[in-house]
């Protein structure tokens, strides 16, 4: 089960903190933090999966999915967050449903639990 802890309408939905569920966890298969791989992927619009971090080489378990269209908002992410995938097909409808969930507080926490339960593996 995966929890989405932050929903910023018109920008991104963020999840991946499977330990604490509040966006503060950082454990990954590589340990607590790992280095940026590369910045060849660019943030060109909605549906891109990227690593969430707190600065260079601070990747952990958290990721986000962009919901913004092209422009300065998503371009700002370039060279800071590694793009590692994209949402395909009708799955973007699910992303839009998550983005529409009502949030509370400055941390944009969803009022309802938003989870991935059966996503499969690559």
From TrEMBL:
Entry protein name: Peptidyl-prolyl cis-trans isomerase
Keywords tagged on the record: Isomerase, Monooxygenase, Oxidoreductase, Rotamase
Organism: Prototheca wickerhamii
Enzyme Commission number(s): 5.2.1.8
Family matches, as InterPro entries: Cyclophilin-like_dom_sf, Cyclophilin-type_PPIase, Cyclophilin-type_PPIase_dom
Reported function: PPIases accelerate the folding of proteins. It catalyzes the cis-trans isomerization of proline imidic peptide bonds in oligopeptides.
Entry-linked PANTHER family: PEPTIDYL-PROLYL CIS-TRANS ISOMERASE (PTHR11071), PEPTIDYL-PROLYL CIS-TRANS ISOMERASE D-RELATED (PTHR11071:SF561)
PPIase cyclophilin-type domain mapped to chain residues: 1-121
EC primary class: isomerase
PROSITE patterns on file: CSA_PPIASE_2
Pfam assignment, any one: Pro_isomerase
Reaction(s) this enzyme catalyzes, per UniProt: [protein]-peptidylproline (omega=180) = [protein]-peptidylproline (omega=0)
Listed GO MF terms: cyclosporin A binding; monooxygenase activity; peptidyl-prolyl cis-trans isomerase activity
Family: Belongs to the cyclophilin-type PPIase family.
GO cellular component: cytoplasm
Single Gene Ontology BP annotation: protein folding
Residue ranges of coiled coil: none
């Amino acid at each position: 089960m995966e929890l989405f802890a932050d929903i910023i309408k018109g920008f991104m939905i963020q999840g991946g903190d499977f330990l604490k569920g509040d966006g503060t966890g950082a454990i990954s298969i590589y340990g607590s933090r790992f280095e940026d791989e590369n910045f060849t992927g660019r943030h060109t619009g909605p549906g891109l999966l990227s690593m969430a971090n707190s600065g260079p080489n601070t990747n952990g378990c958290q990721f986000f999915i962009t919901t913004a269209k092209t422009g300065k908002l998503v371009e700002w992410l370039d060279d800071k967050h590694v793009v590692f995938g994209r949402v395909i097909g009708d799955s973007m409808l699910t992303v839009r449903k998550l983005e529409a969930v009502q949030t509370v507080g400055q941390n944009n926490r969803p009022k309802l639990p938003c989870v991935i339960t059966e996503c499969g593996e690559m």
